[in-house]
Structure formats: C-alpha cells, structure tokens
Amino acid sequence: MAERVELTRRRALGLAGASALGLAGGGGLVRALPALAQASDSTLLAAPLAIERTLSIVYTAAGKSGLLGGPDRTLAETLRQNAVLAARELDVQLGEGGAEASQQSGTAEIPGLDSVRSARGYFELALGFETQAYLAYLDAVGSSRDSGTVRLACSLAATGAQHLAVLRQQMGLPATPSAFETGLEA
C-alpha cells in the first residue's frame, strides 16, 4: 500500500512539476533537481522563506508608493499579509528542524524594486517573486520525506498558485498561461 501511495505521489508531483516548468520556462530547475533530492528540509524551506520575506517588502513598498488606487492597494495589503503569514509558518517549521534563516533587511537588496514607477510594475515584480516561491514549494514537496514539510509546502504552493492567478488577472492577463491549455506560448 505504501508503495502505491508513493507511486501516486510521484506521478502527481511529476505532473505538477511539468506544469510549473511550463509556467516558468524551467530549464534551470530541471538541471537543479538532482541536487534538490539531496537537500535537507531546512535547505528546501529556506529559499521560499527568503522569497516570502521579499514579497512582504515588495507589497509594503507598493502600498506606501502612492501609485496604487483603492482596489490595487487592498490587493497589495492582502498579499502582504499572506506573505507575512507564510513566512511565520515557514519559520515555525524551520524552528522544528533547528535551522536558521537569513532575513531580508530592506528594499535596496531587492533587484528591480527601486526602479518601479507604476502599480503594474509592482505587480509584475511581485508576479516574478510569487512564481519563484511557487516553484520552490513544488521543489520542497517533491524532495522532502518529512510529512510536515510536505503538508506545509503543499498548502503554501496552493496559496501561491492563487496569488499567481489573481496577479495575472489584475494585470489583464489570463489567470493561467495558455501553455497549460495548448502547449503554446501566448
């Protein structure tokens, strides 16, 4: 029975990973997969933790910029709160594993943040980081043997997928890339 569950899990992860690779262009991820298989849970979760902290800073800067109108500002604040909550959950999981994670200190350390001059620019920057976080969660799901890490990464990947859809819609793009439906770039 356990072998069947593992086989089903691997098939599902393979399909999810293939979808994510289509979304992000994934060539670098494919080359990194063997190294991820050897990574510890603390290593697997440190990357999405850093990205969630980065997202919190990006959404805070967007809200304070004066460039976002009512609905855009509300969306940025909601996504900022979600990033903060995700970082807390990751901190707890990492604390259970005895790992320490580095903290992002400010906006100057985030590539592209200082050059944003529009609401769309903030959402485009956030979309890139949200995509990185989503892929990092999928990596953790596929590489971890710890059920707590897998559950947390699955939950946060699902939330991240929702963020990607909302951000894409906010920018006037289809909620999912056409590659999911046709295999072709939009």
Structural class: mainly alpha
Q: Classify the beta-strand content into a percent band.
A: under 5%
Bin the helical content: over 70%
Order of helices and strands: HHHHHHH
Short description, anyone?
By secondary structure, the chain is mainly α. The protein contains seven helices and no strands.
Overview of this structure, please?
With 186 residues, the chain is mainly alpha-helical. 74% of the residues lie in helices and 0% in strands. The protein contains seven helices and no strands. Helix 4 packs antiparallel against helix 6 (147-170). It starts with a helix and ends with a helix. Mean pLDDT is 79; it is low at 7-37 and 97-103.
Helices and strands, with pairings:
Blueprint: H1 2-24, H2 27-37, H3 41-64, H4 70-96, H5 119-143, H6 147-170, H7 179-182
Helix pairs in contact: 1-5, 3-4, 3-5, 4-6, 5-6
Properties at a glance:
74% helix; globular; 186 residues; mainly alpha
